[in-house]
Specification:
It is built from seven helices and eleven strands. Helix 6 links the parallel strand 8 and strand 9 (about 185-195). About 25% of the residues lie in helices and about 40% in strands. The N and C termini lie far apart (about 55 Å). The strands form two sheets. Strands 7-6-5-8-9-11-10 form a seven-stranded mixed sheet. The chain has a four-stranded antiparallel sheet with strand order 1-2-3-4, with no helix packed on it. It has about 240 residues and is α/β, with parallel strands linked by helices. Helix 1 (about 50-60) packs parallel to helix 2 and helix 6 packs across helix 7 (about 200-210).
Length: about 240
């Protein structure tokens, strides 16, 4: 029988204490992996539908083959794995700010680590996604200025619920325009949000990109026994 609660790792970070834990959810009869940052609950492997949908919807909107993809935020790895499951993905860079999260995948502490690190298309890069988006060098340390077919972001809870103040300017028109500079013509920016669709943010995207739309993702929440809806925002560069 599994333990009711187990702390797998604890790391201090510049933005708070990072904890990886496993706990038994007795009502469902399952073990759940969770990551917490300070008092913030970052993610759980009990709810992954919208993280997977971010990659599936974002890459479905892309044109062509041999797609060059960036995922901002590694977490438990579900968005990255979904990106690799798309056969048109030619290369994937996953940018993660917290080195501990990369360590968990490389050491095999997280279940998806071997799939990600064992795929030759995938590189895990330690870095600040928001600083890289703002810079001219961009997301590939080995090829400064490289452009991509898709950039998919899952870091903050939503454009208005931030994990750290450093990302606030990213969600404004100037920050989004800097991000768009790293996309190829026709490239797709995808953003995960824990909240319902915000029409004001969709309009902000539309002011920067040639097309912008929101895709609600509804799934069953077994803890509350009811449907729950999150959002994937998508935008296409002209």
């Amino acid at each position: 029988m599994s333990r009711l609660f187990e702390e797998l790792d604890y790391r201090p970070t510049p933005i708070g204490a990072l904890v990886l834990r496993r706990r038994r959810e007795a009502r469902l009869g399952v073990d759940i992996l969770e990551i917490k940052l300070g008092e913030e609950h970052l993610m759980s492997d009990l709810f992954t539908a919208s993280e997977v949908a971010l990659a599936e919807l974002g890459l479905a909107a892309c044109r062509g083959e041999g797609l060059d993809v960036v995922v901002g935020g590694l977490g438990l790895g579900f968005t990255a794995r979904a990106a690799l499951d798309e056969p048109r993905t030619g290369s994937l860079i996953v940018v993660e700010y917290l080195d501990a999260v990369i360590d968990w995948h490389r050491s095999g502490l997280l279940p998806l680590g071997a799939q990600l690190t064992g795929d030759p298309r995938c590189r895990l890069v330690e870095g600040d996604f928001f600083a890289m988006a703002k810079s001219e060098a961009g997301f590939d340390p080995d090829a400064p200025g490289r452009s991509f077919d898709a950039i998919l972001l899952d870091i903050d809870h939503s454009p208005d619920a931030l994990l750290d103040p450093r990302s606030e300017s990213f969600y404004q028109p100037e920050g989004l325009a800097r991000l768009a500079a790293h996309l190829k013509p026709g490239g797709i920016f995808g953003l995960w949000s824990d909240a319902l669709t915000d029409d004001a943010f969709t309009a902000r995207l539309a002011a920067v990109f040639a097309q912008a739309w929101a895709e609600p993702v509804t799934f069953h929440n077994p803890l509350q026994d009811r449907p729950f809806t999150q959002t994937v925002y998508l935008a296409r560069k002209g």
